[in-house]
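User: Working on a comparison across species. This one is Uu.00g125100.m01.CDS01 from Anthostomella pinea. Can you predict its structure so I can line it up against the others?
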Amino acid sequence: MKTSSIIALTCSELAACTVLWDGRFNDMTTSVDLDNWSWANQVGEYQWYIHGDGVTTDYVNLSPDYKNPADTGSEQGVKMTLDSTAYWNGQTMRRTELIPQTTAAINAGTVWYHFSMMREDTNAPSVNREHQICFFESHFTEMKAGWLSGSSGTSDTNLRWMANSVSQWDTEFTAGVWHNIAYEIDFTGGTVGFWYSTGADDLVLTVEPVSVSASSNGADWHLGVLELPRDGRFKWRRHILEQHHTGWHDSRQYQHPDHAANLDDQGLDSDYDSRARNRDDIGDGTGRDDYFVSVLGGPDLNDYYSQCL
Ligand SMILES: *[C@@H]1O[C@H](CO)[C@@H](O)[C@H](O)[C@H]1NC(C)=O
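Assistant: Here's the predicted structure for Uu.00g125100.m01.CDS01 from Anthostomella pinea:
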């Protein structure tokens, strides 16, 4: 993912939106400012604890180059990185995520969560693994990129919007294209609508509000990315066992490349996750993925206000 910016808006009457919580990075010089936050000293706009053991600049960096140029309200965007150390808290998922630090009512009534996101060809996210991007803890609304765990095939080049873990909309996750997104969340009525545009275009209501189990404690909005390890171990084992009916050698041709070695007689690859770590399925061998996000992404927020009726 490239850089994006995020914000929560509320719109109680015609063209009268209020910024409830400002997730832009306008008050920060560098991402090292995030280190000011701790559980004991909860300052700034973001809680910063979901990341690997490296220094902050291994995972989060700020620059005017990392925002949608059409986003005139943000001075800089954020580049979020998953590298070979980006495992949080002993988990098998790679995670770099920012959480709002606010007491504002970003989890009540109707609010818009507004951001832009982009990826580049350099350090592109893997198309072979599921990435959950800009999501709530319960995943009632989120973006996803890459192969969806449990689906057929081994890769997926789409960026998609999911509500209640069901794909509602998708587009090619093309390098260099800024995707402008707003989730229109009605926490009271239990719906979420999807506003979308690219580049400098105005947001358009692209998917009418759908029914969801909308809930948030106000501190579980995840601005960033979570990458699942391939769950292929079980899936491929089952497939290979089925293929035993036609003989072991026939089954080999169905194996995912990750499984070309280390399969035991049952087709179980017990070393799968550890070997999958540090690999880059795109092929540059760095094992590093970058995502770009800007909060209050383009188009200009004023354009969005005018649509907020
Ligand atoms: C973080 O702390 C440093 C050192 O006290 C300070 O200079 C900086 O302004 C702080 N950052 C923010 C965003 O408040």
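For your comparison, note: The two ends are 31 Å apart (CA to CA).

User: Helpful, thanks.
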